Amino acid sequence: MNGLFSLDGRRAFVTGANSGIGRAVALGLAAHGADIILHHFGGGEGTAALRDEIVSQGRDAAVVEADFTQPGAAEALADDARAKHGPVDILIANAAIEHRAPWTDVTAAHIEIHVAANFASLLTLTQKLVPPMAERGWGRVVAIGSVMATRPRAETVVYAALKSAQLTVIRAIAREVAGRGVTMNVISPGAIVTGRNAARYADPAFRRAVVAKIPAERVGRPEDMVGAAVLLCSNAGSYITGADIPINGGWTIGDAPGALPEAA
């Protein structure tokens, strides 16, 4: 594949690749020529099927597993992936946990596992993978953010706060490596229907309430994330770094027309 959007010869490491956004992005990068390392924790059958699908399209794919809530897991995974599969050109930091609870009930343990999985693992993976990218003069990091960084809810206070912290990490490191051919960005989904939340969106009343707030008048699909990911990971996105791209049907620019009474 030729052109600005080609990823021929690139190897992408996608965390949380077994379902939802991670799966869609992995398939999108592979369709543009990238070989893929697919990380998962649980859901092994789905990840194996995804590997087979990518291989059937003529790309290389490998499956790795790690629990990012465990100390040292992200560091060991990065070292093992590089040793077994070669240099990583693209990091898609998608893996995360989101355990909801009333803000008054948040415990130290709740905070600890969210920090480990949603923040510390990102920092560790960038520490291990970004310096070699800079040495080679080309690299891409795309972290999957969330609309909750700008529209937080009390029952997801830790998750939302760490999505904001994730953006700070990406922007801080992006300044250091931009001059050496490495870009680092965030793409932030809004209401995206995945296997994890499909049951909630199957409730017609809940779905109507969400759609009523979105100017695009629909909820999102994992595939809606792919275009921005491919752009940022290809040479077409070489002058974009430190950005946070909202992919939410316009939700963050305001509620849909008619969602609220017009001001007098």
What does this structure look like?
- The protein has about 260 residues and is an alpha/beta fold.
- The protein has helices at about 20-30, 45-55, 75-85, 110-135, 155-175, 200, 205-210, 225-235; strands at about 10-15, 35-40, 60-65, 90-95, 140-145, 180-190, 245.
- The chain has a single domain (about 10-250), classed as NAD(P)-binding Rossmann-like Domain (Rossmann fold, 3-Layer(aba) Sandwich), CATH 3.40.50.
- The chain contains eight helices and seven strands.
- A seven-stranded parallel sheet has the order 3-2-1-4-5-6-7, with helices on both faces.
- The chain is globular and about 50 Å long.
- The mean pLDDT is about 90.
Low-confidence stretches: none
Q: If you consult CATH, what is the topology?
A: Rossmann fold
Task: Give the fraction of residues assigned to helices.
Answer: 40-55%
User: What is the CATH architecture assignment?
Assistant: 3-Layer(aba) Sandwich
Which class do the helix and strand fractions yield? alpha/beta
Categorize the overall geometry. Answer: globular
- Averaged pLDDT: 92
CATH superfamily: NAD(P)-binding Rossmann-like Domain
- How many alpha or pi helices? 8
Indicate the proportion of strand residues. 5-15%
